[in-house]
């Protein structure tokens, strides 16, 4: 999941100038195995988050604006949909309580991820990057 988000942050950083980002540019900045990165980018492309451009000046660009890409959409593409719980086994009171609790946690986390966009991650990254800059006189 983190590799997908790192790659999307790198690609989103080039959104303003529309320059495609190559896998090599991403792996130069971040320790992501290139073959694995290619698989992740293929999933994101098939999911409609990325466009791929072939050729010498090719690479990947976002298919939509970062503000229109929720973290929930990214998580679902990379990790898949939630699995349906097998209800064929007899439930004890403990299992019912556990499943109800997990359902609440799952619902809350999905709501949070749905309200968080790639643009927000970019903003937080830029804020952290700029905090690290020190000016000496």
Mean pLDDT: 87
The number of helices is 6
Uncertain stretches: none
CATH topology: Arc Repressor Mutant, subunit A
Q: What oligomeric state best describes the polypeptide chains here?
A: single chain
- What CATH architecture label applies? Orthogonal Bundle
- Morphology call: elongated
Strand percentage, roughly?
5-15%
What's this, in brief?
This protein has helices at residues 2-12, 23-29, 34-46, 71-79, 93-114, 118-131, and strands spanning 50-53, 59-62. With 137 residues, the chain is mostly helical.
Descriptors for this entry?
single chain; 55% helix; 6 helices; mainly alpha; 137 residues; elongated; Arc Repressor Mutant, subunit A; two-stranded antiparallel sheet
Characterize the structure shown.
The protein is mainly alpha-helical. The protein has one domain (2-131): Orthogonal Bundle (Arc Repressor Mutant, subunit A), CATH 1.10.10.10. It has six helices and two strands; from the N terminus they run αααββααα. The chain has a two-stranded antiparallel ribbon. A hairpin with a 5-residue loop joins β1 (50-53) and β2. α1 (2-12) packs across α6 (118-131) and α4 crosses α5 (93-114). The radius of gyration is 19 Å and the shape is elongated. The mean pLDDT is 87.
Question: What's the layout of helices and strands?
Answer:
Elements (H helix, E strand, L loop, with lengths): L1 H11 L10 H7 L4 H13 L3 E4 L5 E4 L8 H9 L13 H22 L3 H14 L6
Antiparallel strand pairs: 1-2
Helix pairs in contact: 1-6, 4-5
């Amino acid at each position: 999941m983190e590799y997908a988000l790192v790659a999307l942050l790198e690609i989103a950083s080039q959104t303003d100038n529309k320059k495609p980002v190559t896998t090599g540019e991403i792996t130069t900045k971040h320790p992501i195995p290139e073959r694995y990165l290619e698989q992740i980018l293929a999933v994101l492309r098939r999911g409609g988050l990325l466009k791929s451009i072939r050729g010498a000046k090719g690479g990947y660009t976002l298919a939509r604006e970062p503000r229109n890409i929720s973290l929930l959409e990214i998580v679902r593409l990379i990790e898949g949909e939630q699995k349906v719980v097998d209800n064929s086994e007899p439930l004890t009171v403990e299992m019912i309580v556990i499943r109800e609790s997990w359902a609440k946690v799952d619902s809350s986390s999905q709501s949070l991820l749905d309200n968080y966009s790639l643009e927000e991650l970019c903003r937080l990254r830029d804020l952290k990057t700029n905090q690290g800059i020190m000016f000496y006189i």
